[in-house]
Amino acid sequence: MTGSADLAFDPWDPDFLADPYPAYAELRARGRAVRYEPTGQWLVPHHADVSALLRDRRLGRTYRHRFSHEEFGRTPPPPEHEPFHTLNDHGMLDLEPPDHTRIRRLVSRAFTPRTVQRLEPFVRGLANDLVASLVDNGGGDLLTHVAEPLPVAVIAETLGVPEADRDRLRPWSADICGMYELNPSEETAARAVRASAEFSDYLRELIAVRREEPGDDLISGLIAAHDQGDRLTEQEMVSTAALLLNAGHEATVNATVNGWWALFRHPSQLAALRADHSLVPSAVEELLRHDTPLQLFERWVLDDIEIGGTTIPRGSEVALLFGSANHDPAVFADPGRLDLARGDNPHLSFGAGVHYCIGAPLARLELAASLTALLERAPTLALAAEPRRKPNFVIRGLRELRVEVR
User: Fold this and answer.
1) Rounded to two decimals, what is the model's pTM?
2) What does the DSSP 8-state code read for residue 395?
3) Is-contact 401 253, C-beta < 8 A?
4) Distance between CA atoms of 268 and 271, rounded to whole angstroms?
């Protein structure tokens, strides 16, 4: 189905950003693929289609493994954006097999479930310390006191970033991730380029240090990782480390504040969770579904596909709407309701297919650790002020979430 002039879907409208879920319901009623002219994309709002297309090899995060820009009918990015694209385009997230397969296999050797298991005492201890500090202060901004420092410290510790350098990671990440929004401005692009160059230089220096002085950290593991003669190039190591540092905290930060804002708006569910901490695992999944931190994931159409009778030709871009898929009533009973005990919860917040989030187990651990620490150590936690939302659509989060401990 085509036509976007009368859609409620408007990713630059503050009212839409405040609550995009009614607009998603309208999109799902429109059809299975809706052309959106402002971005030149096909919006895909249904869970079944999003899930299937994430696994469909006729789509890709890139097309460069098969086509030149010209062959694909696309204009190359401006030369001045090169530092961003060099950093971004050599990471797992924006590569397709065989390069994606090779890099993910090598990274997986250094980033295993056992690694996550070993991290659990550190994660839970840090979460408890951060919450204790928040309680001692009588409250404050949950974003800056707990939601940000926990995953940043964990992924930095995992990778081997010195503690003195960690405050630089979040600003670099925020500037780089601005390029993942729809139709980013030139000002946004300039910030992303500058951050990409600075971040890359920093990581090259850190890799050089680890080559001389290997440690028990992921960067040392990436340097050492090899399989049947395959190794990561230095650029692949830089891009992989940047991806893990960015993705390793962005979703967790936003899931934490989005989740608590949802809990404050649903006091009966918060009361049930406070009364029964065994709900924490299912609560984590439901909070990820209910207000999805990554609302959209883009794919290029490498070969013609058909969605609901609509042919989408090669060279097109589809926008897989995770937020809409996670509220699809065909899959989730009463999807607008927050149900922390929801049993069957096949949300797509971590993606699916070959690009399924490699850090999902770590993100779940961090979310459970901070949620448990706040329930145990701040049982009277309350909202102190109406939060302000970031003016972003793709990466959905808050500017701050001010709380008080009564």
Assistant:
1) 0.93
2) B
3) no
4) 5
Bridge partner residues of 301 (DSSP): 59
Closest CA to 345 of 287, 264, 295: 287
- Specify whether the CB–CB gap between 353 and 54 falls below 8 A: yes
Q: What's the pLDDT at 2?
A: 55
For residue 272, the Cα-to-chain-centroid distance in whole angstroms is: 28
Which residues make Cβ contacts (< 8 Å) with residue 243, sequence separation at least 6? 91, 92, 93
Task: Answer whether residue 101 shows pLDDT above 90.
Answer: no
Q: Strand runs (DSSP E) across 252-369, as ranges? A: 296-301, 305-307, 310-312, 317-321
Q: Are strands 388-389 and 41-44 parallel, antiparallel or unpaired?
A: unpaired
Is-contact 397 258, C-beta < 8 A?
A: yes
Whole-angstrom Cα Rg for the chain: 21
pLDDT in tens, 323-342: 999 999 999 999 999 999 99
- pLDDT tens digits, one per residue of 228-281: 567 788 899 999 889 888 887 888 999 999 999 999 999 999 999 999 999 999
Burial of 253 by CB count in 10 Å (0-12 exposed, 13-18 middle, 19+ buried)?
A: buried
Q: What are 65's two structure tokens?
A: 């493994």
Q: Where are the beta strands (DSSP E) in 45-97?
A: 59-60
Domains and CATH numbers, the chain: 14-405 (1.10.630.10)
**What's residue 104's pLDDT?**
87
